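Lecture notes, continued. The same structure-token format from the folding unit now serves as the input rather than the output. Read the line below as a description of shape only.
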């Protein structure tokens, strides 16, 4: 595991964009395609914008990139809260990835059906052991990542690759990749910015192991890399 601290969100985002380009090109050289699972929330927005622009845009063979999401709120894809909408507006609409290689989570039927359908899609795509080339994650102030929220049953999941979650505090259903599939990734990158994340970042990285309370502690890739890219404000309480 590495923790890299940057002066601000802009420099963190530049580093994340460069990491995407590097990992994508490594995957293309090794396997001819690259699979990435995206994070939601505001922190990765600037990374996505950078990837839609020079110089990063010209450094990727976009027609061999396959895009998935780590989680999604069960709202219409046109809803401003949609993780897929954010990524499309900031990035995916501006690069030539074939439409059939962009795989948003769709909850129009039901959260449970969406989770089952997404797992089926992933099983068809990977044809065996699932290994994303890159997973971007964020960190919530309550210690959640993706839609792995404190105290929820999905934290105990060991078999399923995707699961529905109801978050009572938000009165909202969500669908998430589970910890086991994230932990199979070749590279997992957390993006954490802002002073509001300082306390929880310290607890996750340097506090006692308590993943029921701090689900981000579940993310420990089995045979891959784990990187935390954080800005100075978020790193303010690290020892």
């Amino acid at each position: 595991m590495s923790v890299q601290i940057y002066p601000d969100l802009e420099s963190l985002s530049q580093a994340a964009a460069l990491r995407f380009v590097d990992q994508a090109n490594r995957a293309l050289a090794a396997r001819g395609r690259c699979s990435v699972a995206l994070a939601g929330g505001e922190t990765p927005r600037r990374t996505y914008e950078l990837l839609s622009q020079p110089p990063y845009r010209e450094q990727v063979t976009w027609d061999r990139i396959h895009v998935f999401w780590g989680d999604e709120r069960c709202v219409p894809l046109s809803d401003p809260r949609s993780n897929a909408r954010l990524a499309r507006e900031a990035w995916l609409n501006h690069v030539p990835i074939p439409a059939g290689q962009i795989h948003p989570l769709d909850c129009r039927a039901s959260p449970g059906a969406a989770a089952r359908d997404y797992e089926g899609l992933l099983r068809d795509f990977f044809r065996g052991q699932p290994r994303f080339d890159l997973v971007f994650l964020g960190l919530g102030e309550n210690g959640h990542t993706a839609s792995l929220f404190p105290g929820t049953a999905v934290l105990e999941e060991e078999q399923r690759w995707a699961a529905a979650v109801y978050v009572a505090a938000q009165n909202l259903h969500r669908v998430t990749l589970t910890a086991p599939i994230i932990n199979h990734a070749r590279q997992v990158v957390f993006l954490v910015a802002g002073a509001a994340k300082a306390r929880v970042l310290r607890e996750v990285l340097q506090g006692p192991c308590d993943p029921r309370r701090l689900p981000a502690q579940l993310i420990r890739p089995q045979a891959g890399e784990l990187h935390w890219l954080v800005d100075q404000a978020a790193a303010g309480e690290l020892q």
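Point for the exam: The mean pLDDT is 96.
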